[in-house]
Recover the amino acids of this structure.
């Protein structure tokens, strides 16, 4: 597993005004939680944004290198605990880290990636990807970047369950084994409205009324005879 190193500076100032000032300068306010204590730091905004939104930083082991007083520096293994974004622009505003022991198991959520298209899709089926993340337990140094799923054998009407996934050595699946990761359903058949043929007109029965109408239409001379 490649080491992810993030350089940070300790900060004494806190508050909304300080946070806004940091972001204007390209830095990002953050906090490292460890053993019930919290330590305010600042990290590079672009670097952290790229790590969380385009990489695996939201669940991977990160080494925070904290610089203090210009000379002192210390490394801390951490995981991203939480982060806040602007509700309008989605700009990353703040990150919370939690320090972890490299010798203790942790629970993390890992993204599921489908690497091969189900055969049922090629036959016209519809893919329903239901579980996009799985929770696992492992040492921080064994956290997988992603869990790849080979779904090529899934036919129409069949599903792939959590119990079908083989995780790497040292990794324990926490998500319910009965959970459905994906299934391939049959395509919906649109009901075509079939126009009914017009019913054949029933023959008009000649009754008493018909006789009367016929007599009225007959020539007058004919009646007198």
């Amino acid at each position: 597993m490649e080491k992810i190193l993030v350089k940070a500076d300790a900060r004494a100032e806190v508050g909304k005004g300080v946070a806004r000032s940091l972001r204007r300068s390209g830095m990002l306010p953050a906090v490292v939680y460890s053993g019930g204590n919290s330590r305010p730091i600042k990290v590079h905004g672009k670097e952290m944004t790229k790590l969380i939104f385009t990489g695996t930083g939201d669940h991977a082991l990160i080494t925070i290198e904290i610089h203090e007083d210009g000379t002192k520096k210390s490394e801390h293994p951490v995981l991203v605990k939480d982060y806040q974004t602007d509700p309008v622009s989605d700009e990353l505003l703040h990150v919370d880290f939690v320090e972890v022991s490299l010798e203790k198991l942790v629970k993390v959520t890992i993204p599921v990636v489908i690497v091969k298209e189900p055969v049922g899709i090629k036959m016209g089926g519809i893919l329903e990807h239901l579980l996009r993340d799985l929770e696992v337990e492992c040492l921080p140094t064994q956290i997988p970047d992603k869990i790849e799923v080979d779904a090529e054998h899934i036919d129409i009407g069949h599903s792939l369950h959590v119990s079908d996934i083989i995780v790497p050595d040292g990794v324990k699946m926490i998500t319910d084994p009965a959970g459905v990761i994906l299934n391939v359903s049959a395509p919906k058949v649109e009901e075509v409205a079939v126009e009914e043929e017009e019913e054949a007109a029933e023959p008009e029965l000649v009754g008493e009324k018909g006789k009367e109408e016929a007599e009225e239409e007959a020539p007058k001379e004919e009646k007198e005879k």
